[in-house]
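REVIEWER CHECKLIST
Item 1: Sequence provided? yes
Item 2: Single chain? yes
Item 3: Sequence as submitted:
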Amino acid sequence: MFSASSASTLPSDATAVHRGQGRAGGRGRAHRRGFARLGAATLVSGLLAAGTLAGAGGAAAEAVPQHPGGATATLDGLKTFDSAVLHVEGRDGRPDRTQQLPAGLFEMTVDGGGKLKTYCIDVHNPTQDQAKYLETPWAQTSLGANKNAGKIRWILQHSYPQVDDLAALAEEAGTGPLTERTAAAGTQVAIWRYSDDAEVKASDKQAEKLADWLESHARNVAEPKASLTLDPAAVSGRAGQRLGPVVVRTDADQVSVAPTADAAASGIKVTDEAGKPVTAAADGARLYFDIPKDAADGSASLTVQTTTSVPVGRAFAGVTRSQTQILAGSSESTVSARATATWAETGALPALTAKKNCAKGGVDITAANPGDEPFTFELAGFEHTIAPGATRTVTIPVAEDQAYDFTITGPGGFAKNFKGILDCATSGSTKETEGGIDVQSAKQPVPASTGTSSAGIEGDLAETGGSSTTPMIAGIAIVLVVVGGGAMFLLRRKKTHTDGE
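Item 4: Structure as written out by the authors:
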């Protein structure tokens, strides 16, 4: 049985396993922490494709990547780097080997304006050329299960490019002369030792000394605040009410606030609790959707946006399979977030949000129902009901490194799309094969370099998802078709069933 505000996991045969994360002491020891793949056995064999399902009004969902808010950026490539040597542990009686690879700073271009500098935190996973990245909480990346994540942020704060006086950095670290290239390489090597527990050394003598100094002096520092998010990202209620609150969370001084153009044209306003229209807000502000009393059942969105420097240490995860990055520096950059309101005259009023749950190896679907009727749905043959006034979270298992893309629709033309890739773990240690070093079954992997497609690993993830020809089904529903797995999840609205499993 569910209870209000509880979380449950869909039945599966899978278990989420983390390998030991203890760290070998000493700078000369091997760093071999790996992460076992998270996920569900029922989902291992395929990508999730979407069925787009119709509700009242039949509005199409916006097919955008799942994003809690903040910066969205495109990877421009590895720009400032030197070389490093990665030790690869032999398997099945084969000798250990080494692999030379580039190590240094990537650059990204922010949607709407701005530039980011980042380091890699997944040495064995190649990048995709021009990959799209989203600012992401640590808990939704490999950092969430890494007890040394805070040390990586300390390294970022105490090295290049945050410390751009290279002579002062060299003197403090006792390295000898540093260039931008060797400082970037040394910083990246120190980060890899904590992000991947990799046994890696900088090729340059001064860069290696910097890496050793950063590693030995690093201390845990808390995760930085998000540049911009809205909490919750979805609310619901009746026409003629102020629906909310939606709370602004930002490290910026102020953000602009506005309903989307179609919402404004329908007479919908964004206000404070007293009903005063709001066009700008600060951290902690409580926003409301003011819905006209005569508004037909439907949904609307508001956006908040600002220009700010994204905090150092924020994680950036790829929309498709591409090595996770961590922010080392930011210009003034555009950040944004969106929240949605849904209203109906009678019945259930589901407000739906989703986020990756790395601890459980899946995606959490959270549904709140402030309506006057129960909201009932099925997942993999199990029926659950959200009573009026209750909120519940259900975790949909997704295999590690697999894409998901699904749409939920509801009354008044409500439609919500959730898509992304579950990338909760580093790729772990490379393994020795008869043909040489093999990374995630790629033919010729180039760790930490740009322009390496992951198509050889698992296909073109950007092409997964439902098509416009998917049959339309009435009611509130979600279908996840598991390619090769044959499983189907159905979410639908009912009026006749009671709470239970």
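Item 5: Key structural point noted by reviewer: Residues 1-61, 429-501 have pLDDT under 50 and may be disordered.
Item 6: Recommendation: ____
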